[in-house]
Amino acid sequence: MLKDITLGQYFPGDTVAHRLDPRTKILLVVLYIVALFCADSLLAYGILALVLAVCVRVSRVGLKALVRGLKPVVFIIVFTGILNLFFTPGDQALVEWGFLRITTVGARNALFMVLRIMLLIMGTFLMTYTTSPISLTDGLERLLNWMKRLHVPVHELAMIMSIALRFIPTLIEETDKIMSAQKARGADFESGSIIQKAKALIPILVPLFVSAIRRAEELATAMECRCYHGGEGRTKLHVLQYAGRDYAALAMGAVITVGIIALR
Fold first, then answer.
1. Is 240 left (phi over 0), alpha (psi -120 to 50) or beta?
2. What is the rounded distance in angstroms from the CA atom of residue 37 to the CA atom of residue 70?
3. What count of Cα atoms within 13 Å lies in the side-chain half-sphere of residue 98?
4. Are 144 and 159 in contact (CB under 8 A)?
5. pLDDT digits (tens, 9 = 90+) for 186-221
6. Residue 103 forms beta bridges with which residues?
7. Which has the closest alpha carbon to 260: 46, 6, 26, 7?
8. pLDDT band at 5 (very low <50, low <70, confident <90, very high)
9. Are 116 and 33 spatial neighbours (Cβ–Cβ below 8 Å)?
10. 103-106 long-range CB contacts below 8 Å, 24 or more apart?
């Protein structure tokens, strides 16, 4: 299960999706999310699924990587679908069983909610798969640069996000190693009640927190040794510049979003 968590991973490549400006990809994800929340028909969700499939094909990341990233949130997706299926009021009932009642509106909302969550997660993961954490940080910082006038620590916030994304795969790998070591010593994480399972996680959480704190101290020491004092006066090795493909991608994203809104 831990190996299925792919958030924060970056798959190097030289495709059009990889060469897009990180600001463009962030804005495209925002437009995609807006379109998802505005979609209210199978046609609209079909168009958005087709758009995602084309992006996956262009990026050459592979659909398997995106589907594998959905495995850790399957419970949330199923639970959300069940809530919408059984607890959405409506006049026309499809199935009635005791106090449980499935209506046409509930079935429609459940289907749309499941599709929305799946497409939203896969679209967001696709951005992180094709954008390195450093580029993503630079793009987010440039997009939020106007907030510096309001004394918002934009650089620090972008740096925190970059560090968090960078260390998610590391912490997952560390957790997997600790669990394997504890299982080799006879630990059982699957049997017993919920309380017993929670207690069994203590031998994992304690060394994991110790390892995370140690890594944070090492990172802080390394940043101090390199005279890091925030973003004031710093320059970029790679200056972000929009190209023609970025304007074309943003235009296509805007057209698709407007089209989805128009379908309402």
1. beta
2. 19
3. 1
4. no
5. 777 677 777 777 777 777 888 888 888 888 888 888
6. 93
7. 46
8. low
9. no
10. none
